[in-house]
Specification:
Blueprint: H1 22-44, H2 48-74, H3 80-98, H4 108-129, H5 136-158, H6 163-177, H7 200-227, H8 234-267, H9 272-282, H10 284-303, H11 311-336, H12 341-353, H13 362-386
Helix pairs in contact: 1-2, 1-3, 1-7, 1-10, 2-3, 2-4, 2-6, 2-7, 3-4, 4-5, 5-6, 7-8, 7-9, 7-10, 8-10, 8-11, 8-13, 9-11, 10-11, 11-12, 11-13, 12-13
Length: 396
């Protein structure tokens, strides 16, 4: 029942699984740019501070995209009003993305303003549209949290360079804690995951598409860096091949078995909101971060395959795959209820490589990490052949 919500504004749940619309794919183009900006930002400031700042910005970008995906899970993107909201969010997102390289510099207000406009503007629309709908109380609570966090984001933008990171970290912390406490807010009560009546198939597909966006950035970096090489010798060609195969291996690990099986699991879950929160909203953060960090590593290795190994290079070459594997392990744990020995072994192998990484060239270290990812992808192939229709992912 709509209970006052305009007809056609919300997605119909009677026609089976909701499909991802072309307009949602169009919306994602802004975040292709955001991912590119983040990887370039990390590359230019490969320090502890630079990594911490890039991580904070990535968490904000992911949150803006993820909350929009939750919204389009409920609202019909083909409705004119919803499209106008998404267009406004795209414009704000483009401004936010353009400001990412200098977000902690002189463009802090552009970044924070764009981010707050997406979060508060989109949620305000949903709150008004569902005021007399059963989803209304949930959006009212989200609006209270987003407004509170928005004040901190803007305060940080106006603050000096010492106060800004602290205020933005506090704002981000509030936003990430909110779903775990059910958006409990004084006078508004608390939501449960049972209230988040999402379409599981749509949520899974949206997150799969963001993984494709991140992998696309990795391939773009590999190709553009190789194209810019003056000397396309054996080292550069080998590094190019290693970087490409690394992206293929990550695609294989994520999509060969887990993605489809997880989508089926959330689509048939009694509480899809819980899986949407834990498996997709949160567990995909390290997974996507790993792909972005790996893209940075690919650019460094392709540009200087036989160069001197630095601490920053070693960290991203090992850290990118480690984040990806850890994120995928958490994803499978959230969906299927267990960790897999293969992923634990892969993480252990990457950890063993860390102490000797400074003795190796960037290309050799990248090749060894590719071997780890390749072995894990091979495990997926063997598992697919060995499993039975009844066992499926339970033995993965």
């Amino acid at each position: 029942m709509n209970h006052g919500t305009p007809v056609g504004l919300l997605r119909s749940r009677r026609d089976g699984a909701a499909r991802v619309t072309y307009f949602e794919l169009f919306f994602d183009l802004v975040f292709v740019y955001a991912v590119t900006q983040l990887s370039h930002r990390l590359l230019k400031d490969l320090t502890v501070t630079g990594a911490a700042e890039t991580l904070l910005l990535l968490l904000a970008v992911w949150w803006a995209w993820m909350y929009t995906s939750w919204t389009t899970n409920w609202f019909n993107p083909d409705h004119p009003a919803v499209r106008l909201v998404l267009i406004a969010a795209m414009l704000s997102g483009l401004l936010m993305s353009a400001a990412l390289p200098e977000a902690f510099g002189n463009r802090g207000l552009w970044f924070a303003g764009g981010y707050v406009a997406i979060q508060v503007g989109r949620t305000a629309f949903a709150t008004v549209a569902t005021w007399r709908h059963e989803l209304g109380p949930n959006f009212q609570r989200i609006m209270a949290w987003e407004t509170t966090a928005g004040v901190l984001w803007l305060a940080g933008a106006f603050g000096d360079h010492g106060a800004r990171p602290a205020l933005w970290l506090l704002a981000l912390g509030l936003e990430y804690v909110a779903p775990w406490v059910g958006y409990r807010f004084p006078g508004l009560g608390r939501s449960t995951t049972a209230h988040w009546t999402i379409d599981g198939s749509h949520m899974a597909e949206r997150c799969q598409l963001f993984v494709i966006i991140a992998l696309g950035e990795s391939l773009l970096v590999t190709g553009s860096t190789f194209a810019g090489q003056k000397d396309m010798g054996a080292g550069a060609v080998t590094a190019f091949a290693v970087a490409f195969l690394g992206s293929v291996a990550m695609w294989w690990i994520y999509f060969d078995r887990s993605a489809e099986a997880a989508a089926t699991r959330i689509a048939n879950a009694d509480d899809p909101g819980r899986l949407g929160r834990s498996a997709y909203t949160f567990s995909h953060v390290p997974l996507v971060a790993g792909i972005i960090v790996t893209a940075v590593a690919d650019e460094l290795v392709v540009a200087h395959p036989g160069g001197h190994m630095t601490g920053g290079t070693a960290t991203v070459v090992l850290g990118g795959p480690a984040l990806f594997v850890a994120g995928h392990a958490l994803f499978k744990r959230a969906v299927f209820g267990h960790f897999t020995a293969a992923r634990v072994l892969a993480l252990g192998t990457l950890a063993v490589l860390a102490p000797v990484s400074m003795l190796l060239s960037p290309l050799v270290l990248a090749f060894l990490t590719l071997a780890v990812l390749g072995a894990l992808a091979g495990w997926e192939v063997l598992g697919r052949r060995a499993r039975t229709p009844v066992v499926a992912e339970e033995t993965a």
